[in-house]
Amino acid sequence: MCMVRVGLLIARLFDAYQSHAGLCESSLEQAILESGTAKGRLIHYHSLLEKDILRSLQNSKTQKQNNASKARISEVWNAAADSGVSTLWQQWHCDYGIFTVLTSPLFLKPTRDVPSEPDVATKRWTEPAVNGDHWKVDHKLSEGDSNQLQSCDNRSIQEEKPRSSRSQQLSSSSQDLNFSMQECAPPDGYSSLRVMDAHSRTTSVSIPSDYLIVQVGDAAQLLSGGELVARPHCVMRPTSDRDVSRQTMAVFLQPAWDRSLSIPPGTAQERALEAGGVATNLETHIPLLASRWKDGCTFAEFSKETTRPYYGADGRQSRK
């Protein structure tokens, strides 16, 4: 709810600016409130090591194959530091709602040795995870320093006994490797989020641990007549460590599905559609806004046309 309120406050400030400047009338705050919903997602970006482990486990059909997979996992672990692979965690894209509110990311790194128990206060709880499995999360915070980012020795995530066969395989393999996930500082000193401006220049965004970041989406660009601009962005895999995973909480604020995405009266369509610059679309291969939007279309129709090039049968991310 805190993240929702931040998005609503920014929408209110923009609406006040539009009114004070005598620009086109728009009400982003009202558009968000009319939807009555906000989607919250905890997004986990797998490290290359995790992807290799999951791939090995998925290919296991019998106990014999499972034992071979465990041997393969050890090989992957030992070779992890020798790989210089650098890819995108998330392809270039623009958000298509009004605002996306993001927390600063949390980075986790595996360690083979189980850390010794520090003299700290421990808080435990169990949260539901995907497919009905449960994971126990132990937050271990140093006394008098609970609001600061902890070192890799002071926070760990350990598995509770899972219920599905796949999770049992993961648990067994994790025990054989004797590793736990430890919080660590951002690799390369950045959050891995990169943003592109209208001149195709990219910037790495650093997000302090006590900050929220708000991204503008296509719907806000259309409803504001181009006063707000949706910028292409991507998430880079760290170049310094292939074993690091990334997780962040995102809250998506968007119009109601049946809301018409009409450009404000008196605003030229070209200005609203091309406010972000055409060059960025050529660099990132993001479909032009004009190719995804039709005058009078609903947000649901616009969403379908926007997600199809990414996640459809022939989309760029359909098999990722």
What would you say about this model in short?
The chain has 320 residues and is of the alpha+beta class.
Give descriptors for this structure:
single chain, 320 residues, alpha+beta, Jelly Rolls, four-stranded antiparallel sheet, 23% strand
What fraction of residues sit in β-strands?
15-25%
CATH class of the domain at 1-52 and 86-112 and 176-314: Mainly Beta
Corresponding CATH superfamily of the domain at 1-52 and 86-112 and 176-314? B-lactam Antibiotic, Isopenicillin N Synthase, Chain
Rounded average pLDDT: 75
Number of helices: 10
Largest sheet: 9 strands, antiparallel
Bulk shape = globular
CATH topology of the domain at 1-52 and 86-112 and 176-314: Jelly Rolls
Helix content class? 25-40%
The rounded Rg comes to 22 Å
Structural class of the helices, strands and pairings?
Answer: alpha+beta
Contiguous uncertain segments of 5+ residues: 76-85, 118-176
Cα-to-Cα separation, first versus last residue: 31 Å
Extended strand count: 13
SSE order, one letter for each helix or strand: HHEHHEEEEEEHEEEEHEEHHHH
Known CATH architecture of the domain at 1-52 and 86-112 and 176-314 = Sandwich
Protein name: Isopenicillin N synthase-like Fe(2+) 2OG dioxygenase domain-containing protein
Region (Disordered): 137-181
Biased composition (Low complexity): 165-175
Biased composition (Polar residues): 144-155
How are the elements arranged and paired?
Layout: H1 2-20, H2 28-35, E1 39-45, H3 48-58, H4 63-80, E2 88-93, E3 99-103, E4 106-111, E5 121-128, E6 134-141, E7 156-158, H5 165-177, E8 180-184, E9 193-196, E10 202-205, E11 212-216, H6 218-223, E12 233-236, E13 245-253, H7 269-274, H8 279-284, H9 289-292, H10 299-311
Antiparallel strand pairs: 1-13, 2-12, 3-11, 3-13, 4-8, 4-13, 5-6, 6-7, 7-8, 9-10, 9-12
Helix pairs in contact: 1-2, 3-4, 4-5
InterPro entries: IPNS-like_sf
Protein name: Isopenicillin N synthase-like Fe(2+) 2OG dioxygenase domain-containing protein
Organism: Physcomitrium patens (Spreading-leaved earth moss)
